[in-house]
Amino acid sequence: MTRIRELTIGDYDDMVRLWERGRIPFKPKGRDSREEIRRQMRKNAELFLGVFDERLLVGVVVGSHDGRKGWINRLAVSRECRRKGIAQLLLACVEKALRKRGARIFCALVEESNLESINLFRKQGYLIHRDILYLSKREGEDV
Ligand SMILES: CC(C)(COP(=O)(O)OP(=O)(O)OC[C@H]1O[C@@H](n2cnc3c(N)ncnc32)[C@H](O)[C@@H]1OP(=O)(O)O)[C@@H](O)C(=O)NCCC(=O)NCCS
pLDDT tens for residues 1-46? Predict the structure, then answer.
């Protein structure tokens, strides 16, 4: 039986396992380190969601709100449990949590080659903006 709940820092190793297996480019020495995630969870517990099959974490998403928009980050579902609607469930729940914080725009950064993810977001009503380039300024490789 699957269920969804807020994640705690006790789930950290399982979250990382899903990100590694899903080839998510996460930052274990930066914003995804155990200490950083612990700090973020203290402020935004309801934006860290996991789907469990019995006691096994099979899906994860991290929401963030920048004061203007809601962002969908680090979404991953274990290979064995894909195409069962788990990502859609995570998206719906994290959007709901972001909406409670005032978000009316939901966004995600997706690699151009990631067709699974692009299809998923489009199915959920997201539009692709081909005229926009992502620019960022980073204070180091690991942040
Ligand atoms: C992308 C990902 C999260 C989808 O998880 P999922 O639980 O399998 O997705 P769902 O079952 O909710 O699928 C919803 C829709 O997404 C699309 N989709 C999902 N997997 C797909 C695939 N392999 N090929 C084409 N479309 C796909 C389909 O439109 C699907 O609807 P359908 O099953 O009715 O056709 C999962 O493939 C994954 O973890 N990938 C690796 C990590 C990753 O890329 N994360 C996203 C980073 S932005």
Answer: 899 999 999 999 999 999 999 999 999 999 999 999 999 999 999 9
> Per-residue DSSP letters for 90-138?
HHHHHHHHHHHTT---EE----TT-HHHHHHHHHTT----TT-------
When pLDDT is averaged across residues 50-71 and rounded to a whole number, the result is 97
On whether the 2-123 domain is CATH 3.40.50.410, my answer is: no
Residue 120 CB–ligand 1 contact under 6 Å: yes
Segments making up each domain of the chain, as ranges: 2-123
60 lines ligand 1 (CB under 6 A): no
pTM over 0.85: yes
Q: How far is the centre of ligand 1, averaged over its atoms, from the C-alpha of 94 (Å)?
A: 16
Helices (H) and strands (E) counted in the chain, each on its own, are: 4, 5
Residue nearest to atom 32 of ligand 1 (CA): 83
Say how many Å lie between the CA of residue 87 and the centre of ligand 1: 7
Q: Of all protein residues, whose CA lies closest to atom 24 belonging to ligand 1?
A: 116
